[in-house]
Specification:
about 550 residues; Rossmann fold; Alpha-Beta Plaits; 4 domains; five-stranded parallel β-sheet; five-stranded mixed β-sheet; 24 helices; 10 strands; flat; Homeodomain-like_sf
Length: about 550
């Protein structure tokens, strides 16, 4: 069932439309009726119907003004305009607003049904288009090369869960089988100057940067091709572009790290020599650590990039293996970006249970032969992340943890991993409590500021949620959800409530006319004020004044 709103200032038209059509039979449901554009807009904001049927000529806000406001804020809502022969100018303006259907007055129930069925068909067509499996499959197939490259790039950038890695690999038709996994980065050494060009060096110097930018893309394309060709022939693994360089993800059958590394280096050396021989430029290859789990390949890639930096010392046109230039533990624990993001997210928006779970994951595997130095560095990295989250959240560290808090000294006192873990969990829990309290205070403070501003300015006819948000320097979407959560009503309803209370007070205590009171409480149109007053209070302003006088 699609939801529909009927808007017309004539009650018999509204009731006739609702009564004369079998709504269930055409798959539509009338969820509300409005008698003017302003009332309708409030209903649209609150109910967000699928279809709005509106007359043009209405008090307070006409149908086209309503359509314009709906188009601006709710572009997916379908609009049907009821128009007369003498409203052609309005109809021309309606065309610019991309009105979905028009029904010419006077109209029969069947004519309106025909228009409703057309817009319903449009909605269904749009839904079907988005859900068309065959269309999605075709788009998916065309996007596959990009999806594959994005997936491999993600593997290089961060650690992913094992199940996710193999599920995505299967979806993209990527074979990640192997016992050893190595990342290598192939970087072109730059523009070469031949010996016989030395006499023209000054001219070449002027054009080096231009030539570099023009030739580099073509060179990397050639490098990618030759690397793919050799990698496929030798069964090396996957080759792709990442961060404007050629990356190789070597998949080795041998679980022995030394064997896996030697096999990989042998093929990469063939690539290096072939490039120099056939493409006439040189490259340097950075080779990372061998990993026994594909989920850790981002560490190998990180090492490969680091290995490339050593060409400043060792020179270009060579292979540089990280294990040759830096002595390291293969199973080194690392506090990477993924872990930092998970911990920071948990501290700011997580629960106490999630903090304990996240900390358990951070400490998992530390027992397995990690050096004391690496363990201490790891704890320092976790602690630094926690303190950074405190700074980002504008927390007073002394207030949260106490005046004598000296964190970097504390971590040397622990006699067990469990003790260190519980201390870190406690730090996070204290921060979470303060952040949640501050957030709640901020919410309440924003709402109170909005209320105060509204109470001071409700008499202005142009006060809107956007104006209030501009005053508070926050977005309307953010404010709307906070305001409704804290007050259990929308801002529009609150504004109406304030205006009605002020109007009732003036009716009780003054002899001002309804027109004057309307202006005093922010209504430019006295008739709309009377309409809204009756709608909210149940009686007209005059009746309310009389009742108040009688009560006294």
């Amino acid at each position: 069932m699609y939801k529909l709103l009927v808007v017309d200032d004539e009650e018999d038209v509204r009731e006739g439309v609702v009564r004369e059509i079998n709504w269930e039979a055409i798959g539509l449901e009338v969820i509300e009726k409005a008698e003017n554009g302003r009332e309708a807009l409030e209903m649209v904001e609150r109910l967000q119907p699928d279809v709005v049927v509106t007359d043009i000529q209405m008090p307070f806000m006409n149908g086209l003004q309503l359509a314009e406001a709906i188009r601006e804020r709710f572009p997916t809502i379908k609009l049907i305009i009821l128009t007369g022969h003498d409203e052609f100018e309005y109809a021309q303006r309606a065309i610019k607003l991309h009105i979905d259907e028009y029904v010419l007055k006077p109209f029969s129930a069947q004519e309106l049904v025909n228009a409703l069925l057309k817009v319903k068909a449009q909605i269904q067509e749009e839904v079907a288009h988005r859900e068309d499996v065959q269309l999605l499959k075709e788009h998916y197939r065309k996007s596959m090369p990009v999806l594959k490259e994005n997936f491999l790039a993600t593997l290089m950038n961060r650690k992913l869960p094992r199940d996710e890695v193999y599920e995505k690999a299967a979806n993209y038709g990527i074979d990640l089988s192997g016992q050893g996994f190595i990342a290598a980065v192939l970087s072109i050494d730059g523009v070469l100057i031949q010996e016989d060009d030395l006499e023209n060096r000054s001219e070449l110097a002027k054009s080096v940067s231009l030539k570099y930018s023009e030739d580099q893309a073509l060179k990397y394309f050639a490098l990618l091709n030759i690397t793919e060709e050799i990698a496929e022939k030798r069964g090396l693994g996957l080759v792709f572009m990442h961060n404007d360089e050629v990356v190789v993800l070597a998949l080795r059958e041998s679980r022995d790290r030394a064997t896996a590394l030697q096999e990989t280096m042998k093929v990469l050396e063939e690539v290096r020599q072939s490039v120099e021989k056939y493409l006439k430029f040189t490259l340097t290859v950075g080779i990372g650590t061998v990993m026994n789990e594909i989920t850790n390949i981002s560490y190998s890639y990180e090492d490969a990039v680091l290995a490339l930096d050593y060409r400043l010392i060792l020179g270009n046109n060579r292979m540089i293996c990280i294990d040759d230039v830096e002595k390291r533990t293969v199973d080194k624990i690392r506090f990477d970006d993924v872990k930092e993001h998970a911990l920071t997210r948990c501290i700011k928006v997580g629960t106490a249970a999630e903090i304990r779970e996240t900390m358990d994951e951070l400490f998992q595997g530390i027992e397995g032969g990690v050096s004391v130095k690496d363990y201490q560095i790891y704890l320092l990295e976790i602690l630094t992340c926690i303190l950074k989250a405190a700074k980002d959240s504008n927390l007073n560290v002394d207030e949260v943890f106490g005046d004598n808090f000296v964190p970097f000294t504390e971590i040397n006192k622990f006699t067990s991993l469990e003790e260190a873990k519980m201390w870190l969990v406690d730090l996070c829990a204290k921060m979470m409590t303060h952040i949640a309290t501050d957030r709640q205070y901020t919410y309440k403070n924003l709402v109170e500021m909005a209320k105060d501003y509204t109470k001071s300015n409700y008499h202005e006819g142009d006060i809107t949620i956007n104006k209030v948000c501009g005053h508070l320097h926050i977005s309307a979407g953010y404010f709307s959800s906070i305001f409704k959560k804290e007050t259990k009503m929308t801002f529009v309803n609150y504004l109406n409530h304030i205006r009605m209370e002020a109007a009732k007070e003036l009716l009780r205590t003054t002899d001002m006319k309804a027109l004057e009171i309307a202006e005093k409480v922010g209504y430019a149109d006295a008739n709309y004020f009377s309409f809204s007053f009756r709608k909210n209070v149940g009686v007209s302003p005059k009746e309310y004044r009389n009742n108040s006088s009688n009560a006294e």
